[in-house]
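FORM 12-B: Structure-to-Sequence Request
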């Protein structure tokens, strides 16, 4: 349950004291998030979960004694169904696959901008799957065998600018990076992304990236 003032309650779990305290300060400075609890390991997080009543849990992947995946699995086993975001230094595809298989709703990297972490938290609360831009293509690779929610002819509905932005999504660029590349504002990019998702009948930028990569593969196959 979000705060009465609209802020999202977050429980942070990380074994590095300076990092978790610094991240807590950075997130609260943005105004959209209240850090409801800070835990040094999974055992502490499980004890704090009920009283903290978070909307989202953000956990490190590699922590003593059991690690973020063990925490995630235990939370799911205990019946907690809120979004869990892994925030880690690891950009390994195997770690991404393990986290998503364990029930994570997102996979973020510690070198992301604080504003992008806030954006990911907000999207996770809305039910989206979120990954760091650098991990998008790796998630696409993991998901390529899955169902295709949009038809290729749906691309004809997109404007030239929307197709350009879709290509950047497939490359894993963040909204800010896309804005810099196209010399348009971050908010304009977000508006275009919403239009793209609506026209393609998709629910997240991850699905849009998967769709774009698959369509590119189809076109390359036809050209051979």
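FORM 12-B RESPONSE
SEQUENCE OUT:
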């Amino acid at each position: 349950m979000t705060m009465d003032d609209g802020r999202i309650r977050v429980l942070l779990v990380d074994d590095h004291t300076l990092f978790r305290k610094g991240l807590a300060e950075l997130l609260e400075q943005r105004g959209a998030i209240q850090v409801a609890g800070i835990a040094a390991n999974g055992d502490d997080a499980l004890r704090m979960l009920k009283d903290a009543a978070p909307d989202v849990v953000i956990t490190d992947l590699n922590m003593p004694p059991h690690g973020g995946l063990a925490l995630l699995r235990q939370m799911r086993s205990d019946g907690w169904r809120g979004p869990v975001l892994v925030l880690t230094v690891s950009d390994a595809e195997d770690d991404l696959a393990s986290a998503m298989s364990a029930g994570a709703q997102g996979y973020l990297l510690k070198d992301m901008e604080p504003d992008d972490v806030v954006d990911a938290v907000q999207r996770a609360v809305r039910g989206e799957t979120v990954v760091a831009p650098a991990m998008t293509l790796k998630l696409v690779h993991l998901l390529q065998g899955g169902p295709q929610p949009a038809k290729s002819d749906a691309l004809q509905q997109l404007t030239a600018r929307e197709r350009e932005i879709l290509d950047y999504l497939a490359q894993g660029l963040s909204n800010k990076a896309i804005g810099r590349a196209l010399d348009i504002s971050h908010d304009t990019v977000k508006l275009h992304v919403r239009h793209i998702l609506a026209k393609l009948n998709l629910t997240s930028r991850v699905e849009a990236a998967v769709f774009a990569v698959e369509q590119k593969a189809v076109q390359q196959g036809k050209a051979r």
